[in-house]
Amino acid sequence: MEINRLKTFLVIAKNGSFKAAAELLFLSPRAVSKQMDQLENELGVKLFIRRHNNTDLTPTGTKFVIAAEDIVNTYNDELIRIQSEQQTKEKRLKIGFSSSNQEIATQKMLIPLLKSDPTIKLEFRQESGQRLQQLVHTGILDLAVSPYYYMQNDMTDPSLSRIELAKGDLVVGISSLNKLAQADSVALGDLKDLEVLYYSPYASLYLKKIFFEKFNQTFSEHQINRVSSLELRDMLIASNQGIGFYPSPFLTLEQQKNPLIRFLPIADDVNTTYASTLFYKKNNHNLVLHQLLTYLL
């Protein structure tokens, strides 16, 4: 199966038309259409419902998105691994982070390392937290920084070690237009009818599961909804169209960014613990990683 056809298929699935995919991939619409004809012929199924101005996926096409993503990700990971093996033995650290908050924690973590040796080469990659753990597990990344939520049903990779970089609690972000924002804290029962908004750039249900289980199922799953950008999440919350959960270690920045949002501790006796966390494998022999760990442990 030709990898470029799968990549083209995923761009069409994400953007909803052959024309948009052609523009993004710097191909002609005819070339895109030909690739998809070849892919459909190879699979023996129809992946698209073609219309004049847009393209919808068939039910089979929708299911195939997951398989195509897995194949493309596996190919990309293996390519990176091969390229890494071919590189000279220079001082290099491959780092992943999952969000802007984790990027801040990563920068702070790197300060002593880079002060001691500015010649270290750093490579960065942004992915979802679960995806980052897979990349650390397979050796594509040396380490990853992403949230850890201290769940009873731990969803993290048990083979990875972790170090807390910034620990605190999740607090509620609520519009100052909402009367509940006038209190010093808020009970989950007072929030149970409000929509919970979370940000993820990926079509992932991970945070939906976290917030559903972490707060004793106060919120139904259909109340907990993903938005595609931090800015959109914050604007919806600021305008009293939902609430969000924010990590306390980064509240100073959140307060500066969001003057219409109040951040309140949760009054209930529930598990609100959160940490920005470094994940790594103990058997990783990268000397730069071990140098970094000496500053953190």
From TrEMBL:
UniProt entry keywords in alphabetical sequence: DNA-binding, Transcription, Transcription regulation
Listed InterPro entries: LysR_HTH_N (IPR000847), LysR_subst-bd (IPR005119), WH-like_DNA-bd_sf (IPR036388), WH_DNA-bd_sf (IPR036390)
Full protein name: Nitrogen assimilation regulatory protein nac
Ribosomal protein among keywords: no
DNA-binding listed as a keyword: yes
One cellular component term from this protein's GO annotations in UniProt: protein-DNA complex
Molecular function GO labels: DNA binding; DNA-binding transcription factor activity
Family, per entry: Belongs to the LysR transcriptional regulatory family.
Domain HTH lysR-type intervals: 1-58
Superkingdom, taxonomy of origin: Bacteria
